[in-house]
Design goal:
Elements: H1 2-10, H2 15-21, H3 28-54, H4 63-75, H5 77-105, H6 110-120, H7 124-136, H8 141-150, H9 155-170, H10 174-229, H11 235-259
Helix pairs in contact: 1-3, 3-4, 5-6, 5-9, 5-10, 6-7, 7-8, 8-9, 9-10, 10-11
Length: 265
């Protein structure tokens, strides 16, 4: 069985790197095994629940469909974790980059500056802690920076680490080289904030229309029609209306939050 999961994992050559970028210690075949087993149990559970309501064994015919959908979700769950971690890193990155520049300009050695970064930044510090740990265990500074740069989820952090590495190899001033990278990140964040502001206006308008105005007028129309046509609105119907309205409000808030640029002020 382990060989089968290993064969399946070999069909996804980038899975190992994605697992490392999500800061997980699982092997690719272990991740595939967990995905398959969890999806199997979840799909069977859904089929049994459907059978309890329908008392028809035909519901088990949709088991492959349930399994495929759930397996797809669990397989890509690691990508959600990577994106979430990337957003948290990018929030701290400009401040962390400026902190590193100030440390180096103050004459603090690079290794000590990395240690200070480790203690001052929650998410960015994880990767500088990894670098210092590798160096303490005998890995060269260049190799440690290269490994961490390759296996972190943030392209912006990779830019900073590659710039540090290139400066070390060429013997140029690390602080000066980093300044241009940090300035570029600031400009990119400024563009993202402006784009978010342009997206926010139509999103707010749709939110007001679909999640507030239309449901309010709709409920009022239904109440008026119920009065004239002589049918009553049950508590179940009103609760159903409230659930639908709440769903749309949560959906729009989620869309607005997901479009918010990873910028910390």
């Amino acid at each position: 069985m382990a060989l089968i999961f290993k064969q399946i994992a070999s069909r996804f050559p980038d899975l190992g790197q994605r697992i490392m970028r999500a800061r997980s210690s699982e092997l690719p075949e272990e991740y595939i095994k967990r995905t398959v087993v969890t999806s199997l149990y979840a799909a069977l559970g859904l089929c049994f629940i459907a059978y309890m309501f329908t008392s028809s064994f035909s519901v088990f015919l949709v088991f492959p469909f349930f399994f495929a959908i759930i397996a797809f979700y669990f397989y890509h769950l690691i990508d959600f974790k990577i994106r979430k971690l990337e957003r948290e890193i990018n929030k701290e990155l400009v401040f962390a980059g400026r902190f590193l520049i100030i440390e180096l300009q103050s004459g603090i050695p690079l290794f000590k500056a990395f240690e200070n970064m480790m203690h001052n930044y929650e998410f960015v510090g994880l990767y500088f802690a990894e670098i210092t740990e590798k160096v303490s265990m005998g890995t060269s500074m260049e190799d440690a920076i290269g490994e961490v740069a390759e296996n972190n989820p943030s392209s912006n952090l990779r830019k900073i680490l590659w710039q540090v590495l290139n400066s070390m190899k060429t013997g140029s001033d690390v602080a000066h080289s980093l300044s241009s990278v940090v300035d570029q990140l600031v400009r990119e964040q400024d563009i993202q904030v402006k784009e978010y502001g342009r997206k926010l206006n139509p999103l707010a308008m749709f939110y007001m229309m679909i999640a507030i105005i239309v449901p309010t007028l709709g409920v009022m129309m239904i109440v008026v029609l119920a009065t004239f046509l002589g049918f009553s609105l049950s508590l179940t119907m009103l609760i159903a209306f409230a659930i639908v309205i709440g769903f749309f409000q949560i959906l729009f808030l989620g869309i607005i939050k997901s479009n918010r640029p990873p910028v910390d002020i």
